[in-house]
Amino acid sequence: MDISIIIVSYNTAHLLHEVMATLRAASAGLQTEILFVDNASKDNSVEIIQRDFPACQLIVNKQNVGFGRANNQALPLASGRYVLLVNTDAFVEANTLTSTLAYMDAHPKCGILGVRLEGRDGVLQPCARYFPTPWNTFLLQTGLNRIFKHTKMVDDMNWAHDSVRSVDWVVGCYYLVRREVIAQVGLFDPRYFLYLEEVDHCLAAKKAGWEVVFYPHTTVIHWGGESAKSEGAISQGGRQLEALQTESSLLYYRKNHGLPGAMNSLVLSGVAEVMNTCKRLLKGRQPFGFADAWRRLSLQWSLWLRTSWGTRPTR
To answer: In the chain, which residue ranges form alpha helices assigned H by DSSP?
Structure first.
């Protein structure tokens, strides 16, 4: 088996036929298997998979276990030399599987590979990024990145996207992993419910001596956010998703930067809120943002306590 393709579905029944059509067209000449994990979809995703794609293996969760944990569930069933994670809103070109697999075969130190990502409008998306740190996050929050121009920002797009290059991490919507990497460092840390799981995994792989590579010679059209749109929190200003992102950040910094790094991220975030509120006051902007700043700070410190200082998830 060349590639085991894992697809986590969550309320994206309207995309399943399209994503499967593009994968089948790109699988010519390869031995592939497709494994679905449905994260308790409320639409008819499970019915469509069972009816229209009976050759695919399917795991049906009774509750949403999160992105990373769902992908981990499929690993015992995967038999490919490579494991490919594909989102239901990511559509591959006809040469995507063969060209990325050929590159990995020719470069045995490449452990994880991502590709060029474009939106439906053809605009290039951030697809190969730098690792987040408390410092570069603070600079972005305050706009001070315009002064500290040599600091590597997470979503820096000011580099040529036309050649293969080693990067810090690649986006999980098309995430090709060598089987040996999984055997050595595992796949995703199950503490992350959503956000930063692939960042953490790429960091672990690089620490183990593997390369993470951006491969630009094929493109995946990535719609982005299709599953998140179905979260009830979206209608409430996205606060549940904001909480998940904040929690993942705390878990990531504590795990990879230690207690001092996690505390530093909290302090710098607080300083950023104060600075931004003061700027609004000085510029006479209405509203001044006191309530939003207080809500965000309260959320961060509440999750800091609920995660036992960034050591365990809340769900």
So the answer is: 16-26, 45-52, 67-74, 96-106, 134-142, 179-185, 197-207, 239-282, 290-306
